[in-house]
Every structure is written in C-alpha cells, then in structure tokens.
Amino acid sequence: MELLTGLAHRIVEEVTEIVREEVIVVDHTGIIVAASDKKRIGSFHEGAKIAIDTKQQYIIRRKDVPHLKGVKAGLNLPIMIAGSAVGVIGITGEPSKVIQFGQLIQRMTELIIKEAYSSELLDSKHRGYETFVYEWVNIQDLDYEFKERGEILGIRIKQPRCCVLIDIYAHSVDSEKEDEAKVGTLDQAVTDYLRSCFSDASQDFVVPWGAGRFMILKDMTQFEKDDSALNRELMEVNAQIERQFYLRPQAGVGTTVTIPEELRRSYQEAKRAISAKAHPESVVFYSSLSLELALAEISTMTRERVVEKVIGPILNEKDLLETLVVFLKQNLKLKPTAEVLHIHINTLHYRLKRVGELTGKSVKDTEDIVSLYMAVHFYKGWHNEE
C-alpha cells in the first residue's frame, strides 16, 4: 500500500489543527510527500526512514539534527497498516512538548488512511458493478468470460431478476435540472440512499444511470410470483425520496427474467414503463401497461397535431380543460366529477356542453371520447400533470 498525495495532504491539514506545530508526511522510501512547510516536499528525511525500517517511533533532538539528512528536531511516528510501515507522520518541535501527542496522532493518522482506502475499495467495487450491469443490459450474447466476471464480482447472473429504473426528475420542471453541480451532488446522495435501502439483499445492485435515473438490478427470488410485494417496497422507497429530497420520482419495472440473456428485454421494458409519464402511479409495471404502450409509439409531431386539432380551442379555457381532464379521470361519471371540482351538476353539464361546442367533440360519442382521451393524455405528458 502506498500513500496517495491527496491523502497525505489531508493528514497534514487535520493533524496541524490539533498540534499547532509543523507537520510532515513521509512515504515508505523516506521522501516527504506533504508538509506544513511546502518547501520541504520532495526532500529526503533520514529520521523518518529510520522509523520506517525499525517500525518504531524515532525522536530527533537538537543535537541529532547535524548528523541526519533533511531533519528537524521532533517526533517521527511510523504509520502502521496491516503490520507494515507505509509511511511516517512527523511533528516538528521540542520532543518533550510534542511527544505527548504521539500515540493520539499515530492512531488518528492510521484511522484516516484505513477509512480512505476502505472508501476507495468500495468505490472501485461499485464501479465494477456499474460497468458490468451496463454491459449486461446492452449486449445480446453473454460469453463465458462475461459470466465468469460476474461471478468474480459476486453477481449470481442465473438468479431470476428484473430491471427497475427510478427517475427522480420524472415530475420536475426543466429549471430544477439546470444547476449541474447541485444535480451531481443530489444524484450521489440519492445513490447512497438507494444503496442503503437495498443493502440487506446481497443480490440487489444499485447503479447510477445518468440524468437523474438509477438502475436497480432486482433479485426476484422472493418476489417472482408477487408483484404486489415489490410494488409496496418501491412505493416506500419513492415516498422516502420525496420526503428527504423534495422530489417526485417514478419507477418503471420490467418483467422478471430467469435467463441471463433476457435481462436486456427487462431493461427495455423498464424504460418503456418509466416513459409512460402521464401514468398517475409512482411505480409503473410494464406488465400493467396496454394503451400507454401503443400511445408511446406515436411520434412527438403527431402528438402535437392531435392536441392542437382536438383540444386546441380549449387550451386557454382553464375551467373547461380542467373539467375535461377530471371527467375522463372519473371514468365519465358526472356526480364524482362534480364533487372533485366542487361545482353544481348543472354547471358541469354546461361546461361539458361548451367543450363539445368549442372542440366539435361530443362527450357522449364513443369515437369522440377516444379522441379527447388521447389528446388529454398527450397534453398531460408534456406538462407532467396527474
């Protein structure tokens, strides 16, 4: 194990705050890699090299300074990791004054290094998962080497699985996504949160997918025949994200596959499910979609034309548009619609009549209702309304 320069500088900063003395960090070859006095960086420190070789603290008194290369009076403490001296933390000053800090500083430095390397190992592990999962859902042929790499990473690829995509900006406006630095920090916080949510299941893997999306490679061994249990779990996760981060996420869930080569299909299904943004539920299963899938295939240009042609005349008539949306949502039932809108039933009749007059579409004609539904569906998709 070698001391990284960035970590060495962090150690100097944190130790200096405690001892208020000049501090150096020396690597395993005796070269100063970080110091309070920047001029000393890169020079050889003979006292530190002795501490490394003996694995013992080495005190340098004023009388010793002329006889050792690159030293000042002070205390040199070996940094011990797994029985090896990986470097030295040195404190300059009168030995009788700085020796009292010795054990504390040595222990603190070793803890900083262990924490940093543990974090680096964890990051490296997650990067391995990310690369593997990304390849898995984007390639068609899984060769022996690929499957073996999965086993090395601890991913049992023969488990029944499904892909879940969570979009934390599913119901957000574009202005909320403009600050890239804020978005990056938020994405990392959500990544950490999601990993904590699924940490109890060793075969669940959370991968940041970019642009506010997250992939959950879900082990379906316990959920294979029970979508309701998975639905409850994901709804709770989404609810927590909403409470903690003030976002309104949506999850798209692909079907469960038992053959590794079919995971790509589950991923494509999760993408289609999450694209059904007009869907009111926070968790959308691909298996529950029918009309939404057909409508999703219609081009943006065609959608715009349908909206303009069918409900264009009432887009600026807020009361009429709201009435139509609620009427469709209440399955064309008059009484529930009036109750939701808090209006008299006669007022509702009048508004629906005006909708018909302005659009040329009758709410009593099946074909016209289909046209109105499609237009409202496309309109809500643009405006993220429920």
TrEMBL record:
<dbReference type="Pfam" id="PF17853">
    <property type="entry name" value="GGDEF_2"/>
</dbReference>
<comment type="similarity">
    <text>Belongs to the CdaR family.</text>
</comment>
<dbReference type="InterPro" id="IPR042070">
    <property type="entry name" value="PucR_C-HTH_sf"/>
</dbReference>
<feature type="domain" description="PucR C-terminal helix-turn-helix">
    <location>
        <begin position="320"/>
        <end position="377"/>
    </location>
</feature>
<feature type="domain" description="Putative sugar diacid recognition">
    <location>
        <begin position="6"/>
        <end position="136"/>
    </location>
</feature>
<dbReference type="InterPro" id="IPR025736">
    <property type="entry name" value="PucR_C-HTH_dom"/>
</dbReference>
<protein>
    <submittedName>
        <fullName>Putative glycolate dehydrogenase regulator</fullName>
    </submittedName>
</protein>
<dbReference type="InterPro" id="IPR041522">
    <property type="entry name" value="CdaR_GGDEF"/>
</dbReference>
<dbReference type="InterPro" id="IPR051448">
    <property type="entry name" value="CdaR-like_regulators"/>
</dbReference>
<dbReference type="Pfam" id="PF05651">
    <property type="entry name" value="Diacid_rec"/>
</dbReference>
<feature type="domain" description="CdaR GGDEF-like">
    <location>
        <begin position="144"/>
        <end position="275"/>
    </location>
</feature>
<dbReference type="InterPro" id="IPR008599">
    <property type="entry name" value="Diacid_rec"/>
</dbReference>
<dbReference type="Pfam" id="PF13556">
    <property type="entry name" value="HTH_30"/>
</dbReference>
